[in-house]
Write a structure and sequence with these properties.
four-stranded antiparallel beta sheet, alpha/beta, 6 helices, single chain
Length: 208
Amino acid sequence: MLEIKNLTYTIGNFTLPPMNLEVEEGSYMVLLGPSGSGKSVLLELIAGLRKPDGGAIWLDGVHINALPPAERSVGMLFQDYALFPHLSVFQNIGYALRLRRVPKGEIREEVKKLAQKFEIESLLRRFPDTLSGGERQRVALARTLIVRPRLLLLDEPLSALDAPLRSASRAFLKQINQSGQTIIHVTHDHQEKEELATHCLQLGHAVA
């Protein structure tokens, strides 16, 4: 599904060594390593938010190095969830479909389906600053998944949650993966690896 060959990237004093990675469809790949080891940089290269210096990224057999993020069928959930504070939960979830000029009726149906699946129907009229950490995470996941990406990228998705919410969120992410969604998950938490990963890649030491 995803194949990375000899991918390299340098910014400032950080250099990502030649990276080779294969991610099978339906797998849950955990990228494990300390802060500064390049985990988030690798996600951003896959998502198209950074341009590699060398090497190639293939998704479903298509070379995607030159494709803009919106054309990659890759969804990315950032560590802070990056919800739009001035939009309601409903508007946040449906945002990407509105950009694609999907008819309003279809947007309503798609948002409703995901809200039911993620058990956030009661939140649709609320705004992000009124939500708990776990609720914001589910809203952000729904917003990312509404365009049905082939690959879901998670950048430290549980780091802002307290211990009880982390446990519930791990179970929720596992459920999403078991429904068929391919996931790459960045973390430095070995418990997340033990509970979630079908495959794991250990990145090297942090750059000082």
